[in-house]
Amino acid sequence: MSGASYRCLPEADRIAHDRAVLRASSGLVQLFGSDRAFFYTAALGAGTGTGMSIDKAKCSSCIADFRAAMKSSGRAR
């Protein structure tokens, strides 16, 4: 979800998205250890790659889901 929402965002919003992802990754390290945080970060990288196709019709729900997940985790700002 993080990688797909990154690809759906306009370029100007991607830095804020990256910061939210870094906060989430820090939280994962604290809660579950670096292995789990690495998996999350690797999945983000795979989702941002050009090899994955994105259905632009689903972008608004993808971005909303990402923001809701960050908000519910307490990592949103």
Structure description:
With 77 residues, this protein is mainly alpha-helical. The chain is built from four helices and no strands. It has helices at 2-8, 14-32, 34-48, 59-73. Helix 1 (2-8) packs parallel to helix 3 and helix 2 packs antiparallel against helix 3. The longest helix has 19 residues, at 14-32. The radius of gyration is 12 Å and the shape is globular.
Number of strands: 0
Number of helices, where a helix is a run of at least 4 consecutive DSSP H or I residues: 4
Strand content: under 5%
| Biggest sheet descriptor | none
Structural class, by secondary structure, is mainly alpha
Residue-averaged pLDDT, rounded? 85
- The rough form would be described as globular
Uncertain segments of ≥5 residues (pLDDT<50)? Answer: none
The amount of helix comes to over 70%
Radius of gyration: 12 Å
- Described by its quaternary structure, the protein is single chain
Report the span from N to C terminus: 18 Å
Helix/strand order, N-terminal first: HHHH
Keywords:
77 residues, mainly alpha, 0% strand
How would you concisely characterize the structure shown here?
The chain has 77 residues and is mainly α.
Topology of this protein?
Elements: H1 2-8, H2 14-32, H3 34-48, H4 59-73
Helix pairs in contact: 1-3, 1-4, 2-3
